[in-house]
Amino acid sequence: MINLGIKAALNPIAFQGGPFTIHWYGVIIATGVVLALLLAVREGKRQGIPEDDFYDYLLWALPVAIICARIYYVVFQWGYYSQHPSEIVAIWDGGIAIYGAILGGFGVLLAFCYYRHLSCWLMMDIIAPPLIMAQGIGRWGNFMNQEAFGAVTTYAHLVSQHLPNWIINQMYIGGHYRMPTFLYESLWDLTGFVLLMLFRHRKHLFRRGEVFLAYVMWYAFGRFIIEGMRTDSLMLGNIRISQLLSVVFFISAVVILIIRRRQQNIPWYDSGISKD
């Protein structure tokens, strides 16, 4: 199949008026966060956790997660940012790393649950499905910024994947068509979200903390494979940082799952007990 013409890339700016510029990247990320919050609040009520706890957590976690995501990205792109220090804060142009955000948000969650006397495992269980949904949505911000792409490919190959033209056109980057690895990860994340939502309330399936551990294993496994397809990975020497972390997180989750399964006093996820 022959491409009859390449259309211009989609405008990454959603709105611009005077000194204000709103990027689609931010709009998409914000949409994912709002939807995740609503789902977490709904499940929290079911588990006996007041909705204010989720709002308060987000007020602390969101800025910390964004800062950590940016720091993570800048650190592993320091060769560039050391020469362009004024761009370090230009987060609106993209350049955040989801693993940095997850680590930052996780750190805040540990402190938040400690001070609120909440079960950290239960909170993680509640947040895990909305989080992976938000990650799947957020990948479309990369799509608008033409980031998180894979190797050079052909128009015909993209058509053979039954992709619509508006995706194919956006994958024309730097004079070449690229594999839409952002899409693969988005679909992987959203599939994980559906599975967790379908099975987390199954009787005697998940113990406390295992919904979160299932999320970690699912995401880490998919991210490891998809990261290997990307050509814009953050690197530490010859190692893709995200692949290294994926291996660490996956193995850690499996080990923790095995250890916790040997403990007989851990309640089932749906027990409704919100405090340790």
From TrEMBL:
It is an enzyme of class 2 (transferase). Its main location: membrane. It is found in: Cell membrane. Its EC number is 2.5.1.145. A 1,2-diacyl-sn-glycero-3-phospho-(1'-sn-glycerol) binds at R139. Pfam families: LGT. The chain crosses the membrane at residues 22-42, 54-76, 96-115, 211-229, 241-259. It comes from the Bacteria. One of its GO terms (molecular function) is transferase activity. Keywords: Cell membrane, Membrane, Transferase, Transmembrane, Transmembrane helix. It is a multi-pass membrane protein. The keyword Signal does not apply. Pathway: Protein modification; lipoprotein biosynthesis (diacylglyceryl transfer). InterPro entries: Lgt. Belongs to the Lgt family. Catalyzes the transfer of the diacylglyceryl group from phosphatidylglycerol to the sulfhydryl group of the N-terminal cysteine of a prolipoprotein, the first step in the formation of mature lipoproteins. This is Phosphatidylglycerol--prolipoprotein diacylglyceryl transferase. It comes from Limosilactobacillus caviae.
